[in-house]
Amino acid sequence: MNKENDLSIYKKALEVFPMPVLLVGADEHILFMNKSYGEFLGIEPSSVIGKHVYEVIENSRTPLVLKTQKAEYADRHKYTQGKVKDREIIVHRIPIVENGKSLAVFGLLMFTSIEDLMALAEKNQKINDELAYYKTKFIELQSSKYSLDSILGHGVVIQTLKEEIVKVASVRSTVLITGESGVGKELIAHSIHHCSERHERMFVRVNCAAIPENLFESEFFGYVGGSFSGASKSGKMGKFELANGGTLFLDEIGELPVFMQSKLLRVLQEREITRIGGNQTIPVDVRIIAATNRNLGKMVQDGDFREDLYYRLNILNIKAPSLREHLEDIPELVEDILEGLKNENGTKKVLSKEVYTILQKYSWPGNVRELNNVISKLYYMSDGDEITAVHVPRHIRYAERVSPIETTEEGLDAMVEELEKHLVIETLRKNDNNITKTANFLKISRPRLYRIMEKISSEEL
């Protein structure tokens, strides 16, 4: 059998091949098109032999493959003319090279019929639509649950807090939120994210106190498949990658182990992470919001928290006010809690005026969280539609007027010192941190005021 017969057999084989086939020569002209491709394009194959490929397929990539000599497998191609205009298909383009020279490009559409093409195109579109839908839903679930409107209260303290939130939200620096347990530090973090330019991206919360020490690195930075015993074969994305482009909220940052503090500091400085078991650095664009109810300044002095990380986190600081600092907002907070309980249980209940008076005289050491707990108990334990003083727990009903100072075993001197610090903090706030006005109001000298201020941590001021 001679070469001509061999070529004739190959040509006939391609001709009856059920999948569309195209052969383009080194001069970018069409050498061969089988019947299946002709039917797909709606043209007679013999009429295009010898034509430049652009005359038949104006956006063909075969000339590029001739130049690069690099095959393109499973490439998505969208036609721009003729019967198949705007249709998208999957195609292989394979260069035929000899002695470093391109001889031709072999093109193969990955469909046995036009019906298969359309079915796959419709299925592909459906998958894309579903992916877009679930991506949107996923971002919604991971985005901030609360906004500035979620922070209830119209007193001076809360209005000042909201103004601070708006200010820090407009910049990209790290924020440290401090305050007692139960004051709503997470609510503030959500509000900062919601007010920022990142509000449409992920808000990822990490409770540093709830992660076992041996899992810190994998939770923060992720891992590659099979990097340790029990690891997923496909690997796992860490919180930094998940929050990329958005906000990472590090709650209870004071509980972060010292060995992780150095790793966190490096990420904040370099803005990149490496998964466990991997060697590829991954750039991350994440805004950090951290929160704690501990005195990080004292932890630094005691060697329990890195000083360099403390200053890196404490670029912007927001102190979440305790409930006893804005008791005038209790009625609004209570009404919101009762509304939620009504929606959940279907029964509306109200508080008597006497109960409101009692609640506003209590010191609320557990802050808003305690208030929520108390109101919920009153709602469920009272029989009628009105909650009266008799339903209020005795320790609240008979509590004395709020006092900023708690009894301590350290003695009178320590209590007096705490009272001095509290009065200075409150007076500074009322006078916009003006030293002269504060000293005059307290009727003390400026040097004495400075001595008291030296005993106060930066988070409290």
Brief rundown of the structure:
It is built from 19 helices and 16 strands. With 461 residues, it is an alpha/beta fold.
Notes on the protein architecture:
The protein is of the alpha/beta class and 461 residues long. The chain folds into four domains: 3-114, PAS domain (Beta-Lactamase, 2-Layer Sandwich); 148-319, Rossmann fold (3-Layer(aba) Sandwich); 325-397, Helicase, Ruva Protein, domain 3, CATH 1.10.8.60; 412-454. It is 43% helix and 16% strand. The chain is built from 19 helices and 16 strands. The strands form five sheets. A five-stranded antiparallel beta sheet has the order 2-1-5-4-3, sandwiched between helices. Helix 17 (412-430) packs across helix 18 (435-442). The longest helix has 29 residues, at 114-142. The radius of gyration is 35 Å and the shape is elongated. The relative contact order is 0.07. This is Transcriptional regulator with PAS, ATPase and Fis domain. Keywords: ATP-binding, DNA-binding, Nucleotide-binding, Transcription, Transcription regulation. Residues 151-380 form the Sigma-54 factor interaction domain.
Question: How do the helices and strands line up, and which of them pair or pack?
Answer:
Layout: H1 3-16, E1 21-25, E2 30-33, H2 35-41, H3 53-56, H4 62-68, E3 72-78, E4 88-98, E5 101-109, H5 114-142, H6 156-169, E6 175-178, H7 185-195, E7 203-207, H8 216-221, E8 222-223, E9 236-237, H9 239-242, E10 247-251, H10 258-270, E11 272-274, E12 281-283, E13 287-292, H11 296-301, H12 307-313, E14 316-319, H13 330-345, E15 350-351, H14 353-359, H15 367-381, E16 386-387, H16 394-397, H17 412-430, H18 435-442, H19 446-454
Parallel strand pairs: 6-13, 6-14, 7-10, 10-13, 15-16
Antiparallel strand pairs: 1-2, 1-5, 3-4, 4-5, 8-9, 11-12
Domain Sigma-54 factor interaction: 151-380
Keywords: ATP-binding, DNA-binding, Nucleotide-binding, Transcription, Transcription regulation
Organism: Frisingicoccus caecimuris
